[in-house]
Amino acid sequence: MPGAAGDRARRPLIFGARTSISASNSRNDPECGDVMTDETNKHGAEASKPAEDIVTPAEADVQDMFEDADEAAQAESEALEAARAEAADFRDRYMRLAADMDNLRRRTEREVKDAKSYSVAGFARDMLAVSDNLRRALDAIPADVRAGANAGLSTLIEGVELTERSMLSALERHGVRKLEPEGQKFDPNFHQAMFEIPNPDVPHNTVVQVVQAGFTIGERVLRPAMVGVAKGGPKVAAAAGEASAS
Predict the structure, then answer these.
(1) Burial readout 134-172 (b: 16 or more C-beta within 10 A, e: otherwise)
(2) CA-CA distance, 134 to 204, in Å (whole number)?
(3) What is the 8-class DSSP label of residue 51?
(4) Phi, psi angles (nearest 5°) of residue 191
């Protein structure tokens, strides 16, 4: 028992001696003190960080993977937007081209139709001059001469009339129509007023005389009719109202 008590008495002395030796070594070796100080500061700084701020290598790898995935998704999104913009541009170009082609087709059809309808306009206008001359020749024959004409003159008159009718029929087959404006309201699109005739019994601006016949080809005026119009009569609207009342 005395031996055990002696051992316990010696242990503090030994620990104290070791502590004194370590302290003296630290004082004698500056490098050792610096290493311990750095290690202490390092572990102290790490220990002072919050637990959520400490990133492990596995977490760093996962974070890098997420960043790469975000960059790839952003690149795909930009590529998709660029493809959509290009597709919209192509669609707009296609729609414009289709509209241009449709307009070209319609314009070509209209031009072909007009060419068919109005290609003979110049020739028909020249033939109208021949028809006018035939009509003037017939109108120049006095009524008494026509009535007392012999067989030869009657045959000549009939031949001229037949030629005039045949010419007008041929022109009509090619779309040329003769205007019949007498008794109609004056229309500056189809008629050309040469003079006015005072007539209170006829509505104002009514065609009462045709000096030269007018013709149309298709929907166009080949030659306007030269006419004389009434002057001094009632207005057309008033005349129509009186007629309906009666």
Answers:
(1) bbeeeeeeeeeeeeeeeeeeeeebeebeeebeeebeebe
(2) 33
(3) G
(4) -120, 155
In DSSP notation, 64-131 reads HHHHHHHHHHHHHHHHHHHHHHHHHHHHHHHHHHHHHHHHHHHHHHHHHHHHHHHTTHHHHHHHHHHH
Q: Across the strands, what pairs with 220? A: 217
pLDDT of residue 207: 94
Q: What is the end-to-end Cα distance of the chain in Å, rounded?
A: 161
pLDDT of res. 70: 79
Residue ranges in the chain modelled with pLDDT below 70? 1-55, 59, 236-246
Q: For residue 229, give the nearest of 197, 184, 181 by alpha carbon.
A: 197
pLDDT confidence of residue 155: 93
pLDDT digits (tens, 9 = 90+) for 96-155: 999 999 999 999 998 888 887 778 888 888 999 998 999 999 999 998 888 888 988 899
Q: Whole-angstrom Cα distance, residue 21 to residue 116?
A: 127
Residue 236 phi/psi, 5-degree rounding, is -65, -40
* C-alpha to C-alpha distance for 46 and 86, rounded to whole angstroms: 54
Q: Which of 156, 166, 159, 231 is nearest to 197 (CA)?
A: 231
Phi, psi dihedral angles at 205 (to 5 degrees): 70, 30
Place of tokens 């009666």: 246
Given this model, what pLDDT does residue 100 score?
93
- 16-42 burial, b at 16+ Cβ within 10 Å, e below that, comes to eeeeeeeeeeeeeeeeeeeeeeeeeee
